[in-house]
From TrEMBL, chain A:
EC category name: transferase
Tr-type G domain segment(s): 25-239
PANTHER family: TRANSLATION FACTOR
Protein name: sulfate adenylyltransferase
GO biological process: sulfur compound metabolic process
Superkingdom classification of source: Bacteria
Signal peptide: none
Key word Nucleotidyltransferase present: yes
Matching InterPro entries: CysN_GTP-bd (IPR041757), CysN_II (IPR044138), CysN_NoDQ_III (IPR044139), G_TR_CS (IPR031157), GTP-eEF1A_C (IPR054696), P-loop_NTPase (IPR027417), SO4_adenylTrfase_lsu (IPR011779), T_Tr_GTP-bd_dom (IPR000795)
GO terms, molecular function: ATP binding; GTP binding; GTPase activity; sulfate adenylyltransferase (ATP) activity
This enzyme's EC code(s): 2.7.7.4
TrEMBL record, chain B:
EC top class, as a word: transferase
Highest taxon of the lineage: Bacteria
Alphabetized UniProt keyword annotations: ATP-binding, Nucleotide-binding, Nucleotidyltransferase, Transferase
Similarity comment text for this entry: Belongs to the PAPS reductase family. CysD subfamily.
InterPro entries reported for this sequence: PAPS_reduct_dom (IPR002500), Rossmann-like_a/b/a_fold (IPR014729), SO4_adenylTrfase_ssu (IPR011784), Sulfate_adenylyltrnsfr_sub2 (IPR050128)
Phosphoadenosine phosphosulphate reductase domain sequence ranges: 50-273
Keyword Methyltransferase attributed: no
Disordered: region residues: 298-320
Protein's recorded name: Sulfate adenylyltransferase subunit 2
Gene Ontology MF, one: sulfate adenylyltransferase (ATP) activity
One Pfam family here: PAPS_reduct
């Protein structure tokens, strides 16, 4: 099974047609968000159920558990609320990942909790999502939590939003209720920088299935797609291949065997752009230059490899490279700095105070860092900034300056998510304190910070 | 050149220039493979003593295949660990040992039987040994000072697993606390842990059962033969086809019949059932899994049927 010649014959990206296409090549990563009791888990359960992604034994378990609770119809949220505490309290506590497929597309869904104290999980779900479904209760409309979630999604660069106006049956399928919620949300989304064609509003009843998979006859005034139709057809933006090449080195592969006495390869996942044989590269933060001698992929050598692929790169020159270094396009290099201005989403109970000492993990490198300035706390409701706050509490977002013990090659998050992001760790117990984004990737917040 | 030939040539040209310029898309299996390899390398870079939990079953065989690819042409820089319940299928153990010697790996085996013989564990009344694996597993981790333990768990298997992180921190008692999980952002995994704590790592987190089988097909990965249809003497217990073995044979009221079956999961023989199947090849299996109305655990695992939170409870205690 490790015979290279066997796998090499199958790998033929440049010859194009020889590779058999898998059943689904098209993958959409999405996250859900919304306030508590908006019916997120029920909606997700409904999507899984109505796309036939729930198998008989899972459904039987839900029927049994619903009956045990004295319910007259199956509670589909029990499909996703996997923890004992969640079922007992009837709320979602933690991100749950769900996988389902239709003939058109494969979906990875991060179902995130609505409770304010679990907002940090929305950040987690949003960090990899290409689309987010935000739920509101038709009776309550756009809430503080809705605005907060939308701002977090925009900040993390989730390209598309869907507002699902749930429980539309509870307002008698009233068109005007839907229209006013849609208008209010559209204005907020616009302020966050979303163009109108990247935001879609769908009236649904997760409980009864209206407009979730099939278009409902009870909302004749709604002419758009059902939620699933939209998810199946919305364009998925591929990783930008025109971005400059970045490869954080995770591991140096040196077999030193009789067969491979001199092999020295730099292993990592291409974070941005494309790497090709012969490319001129720089190794940061040191700055040494070389050329790509060979690109080894999981299926053997290839002329090039694009963002998302795990590769091993061999260079022409004998350069000193270790885990944590970043191999980049020599023509277009990131900034190498020990002063990082960033936006952080604070995810820990313990607040952030100025002068705090933390660890920063960026790519494959972890360095010590000091918070030298806490300049702004952002108000995600008003999209405004509060200058020089004393601290940053759980779920708050702020602009921070770090000084790092070693220089890091960083891109702006807005230009390159993978090399513009980092996590902040607690040096005492190793816990994750914050999500960090280089720069201020959200225009209204950048404006607020400049005030 | 004839007009026809020119037209043929034109047909080969993509209509949309944007599509023509785009490099080949990373497809679904390539994306999952690259993600898993990234996870293996991250652990190799951040931990001192990682180990791969390896039973010889389908998911751990795929895990080993990915580990081999992650470090090629160098050998896999970790040993393997198997907690042998004493109720394992003989052919799977043989397969396990063959793979170990073929790739020149080191295998550590911790035997539940030794624990029972030594009086440190006692047999359960129902004869199931799956829950008994936890203590020997934790002991092996502690004794060998393993700080990262790879498992083949997938989030699509079970509701509690759907909530688990790729890097899942365990305290010094091996316990999982779902309320204190670290947020996991982008592909930045946090490997920090204190002395005595260890990390469980799940490179197949985002794979589905069908993905695993399509990958086995694509990579031509050899599996233990009982994953494919074969004739076997089985008896019916609680709606599952069990086979007789050291875990106890049929009771008096249970009749042995010969059936064409295969296994969808392979675990402790006392609680792992076979399914009737005519799937003799990987292609057959993919067709069967795609059309199945039951999850692999629901179809074949008695231990998960015990309660609504059976898996969560076992995980909290330190189980995988």
């Amino acid at each position: 099974m490790t015979d290279e010649t066997e796998t090499l014959t199958r790998f033929a990206p440049d010859s194009g047609t020889e590779v058999a296409l898998p059943v689904h090549t098209d993958l959409l990563r999405l996250a859900t968000a919304g306030s508590v009791d908006d019916g997120k888990s029920t909606l997700v359960g409904r999507l899984l159920h109505d796309t036939k992604s729930v198998l008989a034994d899972q459904l039987e378990a839900v029927h049994r558990a619903s009956a045990d609770r004295g319910l007259s119809q199956p509670d589909l949220s029990l499909l996703v609320d996997g923890l004992r505490a969640e079922r007992e309290q009837g709320i979602t506590i933690d991100v749950a990942y769900r996988y389902f497929a239709t003939p058109k597309r494969t979906f990875v869904l991060a179902d995130t909790p609505g409770h304010v104290q679990y907002t940090r999980n929305t950040v987690t779900g949003a960090s990899t999502a290409q689309l987010a479904v935000l739920l509101v209760d038709a009776r309550k409309g756009v809430l503080e939590q809705t605005r907060r979630h939308a701002a977090v999604l925009a900040l993390l660069g989730v390209p598309r939003l869907v507002l699902a106006v749930n429980k539309i049956d509870m307002v008698d399928f009233d068109e005007s209720v839907h229209a006013s919620i849609a208008a209010e949300f559209a204005e907020h989304a616009r302020a966050l920088g979303y163009s109108d064609d990247h935001v879609v509003t769908v009236p649904v009843s997760a409980l009864h299935g209206d407009n979730v998979v099939e278009r409902s006859e009870r909302t004749p005034w709604y002419t758009g797609p059902s939620l699933l139709e939209h998810l199946e057809t919305v364009p998925v933006a591929p990783d930008p291949h025109d971005a400059p090449f970045r490869l954080p080195v995770q591991y140096v592969i040196r077999p030193r065997t009789a067969e491979h006495p001199d092999y020295r390869g730099y292993a990592g996942q291409v974070a941005a752009g494309v790497v090709s044989e012969g490319d001129e590269v720089a190794v940061l933060p040191g700055g040494a230059r070389s050329r790509v001698a060979k690109v080894d992929t999981p299926d053997g050598s290839a002329p090039s490899a694009a963002a998302g692929r795990s590769v091993t790169v061999l260079l022409e020159d004998d350069v000193d490279i270790a885990r944590g270094d970043v191999i980049v396009s020599a023509a277009s290099q990131p900034r190498v700095t020990d002063e990082i201005e960033a936006t952080v989403c604070w995810l820990a109970e313990k607040p952030l105070a100025p002068r705090a000492r933390v660890l920063i993990k960026h790519g494959a490198r972890t360095v010590q860092a000091k918070v030298t300035e806490l300049s702004t706390r952002f108000d995600e409701q008003e999209l405004s900034g509060v200058g020089s706050p004393e601290r940053l509490e759980l779920n708050e977002i702020g602009k921070v300056r770090f000084q790092t013990s070693e220089s890091l090659p960083v891109d702006e998050y807005a230009n390159s998510k993978r090399t513009g992001s980092f996590i902040v760790l607690d040096p005492s117990d190793g816990s994750t304190l914050a999500a960090g984004l280089v720069g201020v990737p959200l225009a209204p917040l950048a404006a607020a910070a400049a005030d | 050149m004839t007009t026809e030939a020119i037209m043929d040539q034109n047909l080969d040209l993509p209509e949309d220039p944007a599509i023509a310029e785009a490099p080949p898309q990373v497809d679904n299996l390539d994306a999952l493979e690259s993600e898993a390899i990234h996870i293996f390398r991250e652990v190799a870079g951040e931990f001192d003593r990682p180990v791969i939990l390896f039973s010889g079953g389908k998911d751990s065989t795929v895990l080993l295949h990915l580990a081999l690819k992650a470090f090629r042409p160098a050998p896999v820089p970790f040993p393997l660990l198997h907690v042998d319940t004493g109720h394992n299928f003989e052919e799977v153990l043989q397969f396990r040992d063959e793979l170990v010697s073929r790739h020149d790996l080191r295998l550590v085996v911790e035997r539940v039987q030794d624990w029972i013989d030594g009086g440190r564990l006692s047999e359960r009344p129902d004869g199931t040994r799956n829950p008994l694996q936890t203590q020997p597993l934790l002991e092996a981790i502690e004794q060998n000072r393993f700080d990262a333990v790879f498992g083949g768990g997938r989030r699509d298997e079970e509701r509690a697993r759907a909530k688990e992180r790729v890097f899942s921190l365990r305290d010094s008692f091996g316990q999982w606390d779902p309320r204190r999980q670290r947020p996991e952002l982008w592909n930045l995994y946090n490997g920090k842990h204190r002395a005595g704590e260890h990390m469980r790592v799940f490179p197949l987190s985002n794979w589905t059962e069908l993905d695993v089988w399509r990958y086995i097909q694509r990579e031509k990965i050899e599996l233990a033969e009982l994953y494919y249809a074969h004739r076997r003497e089985v008896f019916d217990r609680d709606g599952m086809w069990l086979t007789s073995g050291p875990w106890g044979g049929p009771r008096e009221d249970e009749q042995v019949v010969e059936k064409t079956v295969r296994y969808r999961t392979v675990g402790d023989g006392s609680c792992t059932g076979a399914v009737e199947s005519e799937a003799y090849t990987v292609d057959d299996v993919i067709a069967e899994v795609a059309a199945s109305h039951l999850t692999e655990r629901g179809a074949t695992r008695a231990d998960d049927r015990m309660s609504e939170a059976a898996m969560e409870d076992r995980k909290r205690e330190g189980y995988f």
